[in-house]
Structures are given as structure tokens and as C-alpha cells.
């Protein structure tokens, strides 16, 4: 592509990002939270609204004598990966802390979604010196197309310990519990205190016995959720959240002492289940006093995302979608837009702008870019297609999700074994069960999307796409 062609694409993207669309953000918010009920593992409560899902994995942990029933399946499979699950809970909690007052009746459902995760994280850290990093043999699971209610693949628990550490997964659990403790402080002080106490204990474990779970249980967590960014960012990320939750000087001193351990090249612009760098700077930017390097790196992050900036490090499709390398792309515009929205509030509070060389970005510009990504996801795109199941008139029908694509237990009470699900996987028929609110991986950089279960990179939903989106939708619902 020539320089002129690249410039024309950028101009189109900028124009798209400046556009305004009309969407029912309240409806999308309700559905984005409902999605988590479809991902529940364990004994479902009487309040379960997604009724085609039934109880599953009721003996998890029994082989090691620990109750590990509950938690979430991370995506379209039936494995409980604690690392991305904990990050999803951290982001749900952050969404409520920032935008809870805008959630209305959906606030209680958000609290329920968080507690379903934190209850499990408490179980996963209930044995001192041991953290459960995963439940379920991922290879056996991925070789079967089975409903979670029918699972007969091994439900092996994989743990990290003093001898076989996993600082990234342990620290992310600490961050999730600390952030959630702040959420529940208003609603259940006893539960909040228990979350915070466990967060401090798990953080101490993660820091004292340092090491990556890639080295401990890598043959089971890789290639699914390998840690590519190292565990230092999770340690600092957890310390930042513990600092917010406790206001103890110890955690602030820890952050200052360890921040230099993070990669200082391009990582300031990274944020997701694996890399927490941009999130660290943005959480700290919310404090009344934000010393260097947090403000500088937060500003650099903004300049790396704005399409008109000379230092932009992401790509934009012709339709205006933010794109970065890797699968499940919609996790990136969701997470980065959440950070833009949060930072816009800090900028407005401090009466400040971000300067990207010759570009001056005011808080409203950050909000505008964030909204453009949400609107694209909801249907303001070249295909006029919503990428949230059940929202709008046109949305993905054949998502890569076992429970959604197989008949429900109510409709087909007979057991469907490992091979019995193959015909449903390869079928061209729409999924019989709507996983309402699920956001799929999304289109490619050409704004094209293939509605196919086989193309899991684009058609598989995940808990960590929806988590930051909950906060974004809550804000735009009332603004």
C-alpha cells in the first residue's frame, strides 16, 4: 500500500471515528451482563435468567479434595482458565466502580456477575500456598464438541505453588479480589473484608514465590493462555489495586520500587488479560496526585490510539474499527476504549489536555473515539451488523460456542457424547440457543466477518471482551 493509500485509509477512519450513531446502550448493557449467566459453571441459582443453561461440573475439585464448583467458562469451551477469568472480574469490578451509578437496575446483575467469579476465586485460593490456575484438561475438552452439562472429559485441576509458582495468575486473582472488595464495601461489608483479606494473602504469595506459570504448568495453559508479557506487570497491577483498596503506603512503595521492572518500550500501550501496562498508568491517573512516569505514559497511551496522532501504534479499518495483531480482535477496542473513557474523566477533573505533537486531544475527543468503537461493535459498520448476539436486527447466528450450538438439555435430555456433537459443529444451521449479550471476536481489518463456528478467531465470544464493555455501555447509556 502506498503512502497516499495509507493516508486515505486513515482519513476514512478518522471520519468514521468522528461520526455519531444512535444505539440503545441500555438494552446492550442489559444483554452484555446477561451473557455471564450463559458462561456460568456449577450449580445454577433459582434466579438464573438464561434458562437453557443447566447445572454443570458439579464435582470440580473432588479429585484433590477441594470444592472448585462454580466460576466461569472463559469462552466457547468448557475449561475454567483462572487467569483470564480473574482479569474479567477485575474489569467488571472496575466498570462498577467507575460507572455503577449509571447502571440502574443492571447494577444488581453486575454485582451478581462479579460475586459468581469472586466466590470461585476464594475457592481457588482456599488452600494456603496453593492457587488453582485451571480446571479441565484443555486438550481433551477442545477435542470434543460437548455441552457443559454433558462433559465427560477429565476435570483435572492444575495448580501453582511455592515449588511451582505462577505469579501472573496469582497476582491477577489478588487484583480481582481487591477491586471487588471496593465494589462490595457499600453492599456487604463482611464479604468485602473477606475479599480484601484474601487479596493481600494471595498477593504476598505471588510476590514471595516469583515465577511464571508458563514454566510450572505451561504444557496445560499453553497455547491457550500463555503469559507473553511476563508476571512483573501483574504484580504491579495487583499492588495498584491493593493500594486503592487499602490506602496502605506499603503498596504504593511497592509500585514505585517495581515499576522499573516493566518493559519501557512499547508496552505502555498494551492492555488486556495478558498485559496490564496501560491499565496500571490509568488506574494511578485517577488519584489526586499522579507522579511520573504514570501521567507521561498515560498520555503516550492516548497518542498511541488516536488515529490523527503521529505516534499512533494501532491500525484502523476503513469502517473505523481499531485493530491490533492477534485473535479475538474486539477485546482490544473494548479494553482500550474503556481506558480512554476513564482517562477522559481524569483529564476533565484536572482541566488538562493530551498533546500528541501537533495534535491536542481534549477529554471529549477521547470519549468520541471510545464511543465510535462501541457503535461499530453495535452495528455502525460497513456490514450494518451487530457483533453482540441478540442486539439489533442482524447479529452472529453461528458462534463458536458449545452450549449455544447444541440443543439444550430441556430440548434434548439424552446425553450427547464427545463425537456426538460433531454434526452440530459442522452444521450450517443457526445455533439453537441464543447466548444473549455475547460479543464475538469480530471482523478482520477489511471489515469482513464470516458467520461460521469453524472460524473461531472471529466467531468465539469471551468473558474478557464483555467485561470492559459493561462499563462503556453504562456510561453511554446516561451520557
TrEMBL record:
Native species: Hibiscus sabdariffa
E.C. code: 3.2.1.4
Pfam families, A to Z: Glyco_hydro_9 (PF00759)
PANTHER family with a match to the protein in the record: ENDO-1,4-BETA-GLUCANASE
Protein name: Endoglucanase
Gene3D superfamilies cross-referenced by the UniProt entry: 1.50.10.10
Main EC class the enzyme belongs to: hydrolase
Comp. bias (Basic and acidic residues): 143-153
Catalytic reaction annotation: Endohydrolysis of (1->4)-beta-D-glucosidic linkages in cellulose, lichenin and cereal beta-D-glucans
Recorded superkingdom: Eukaryota
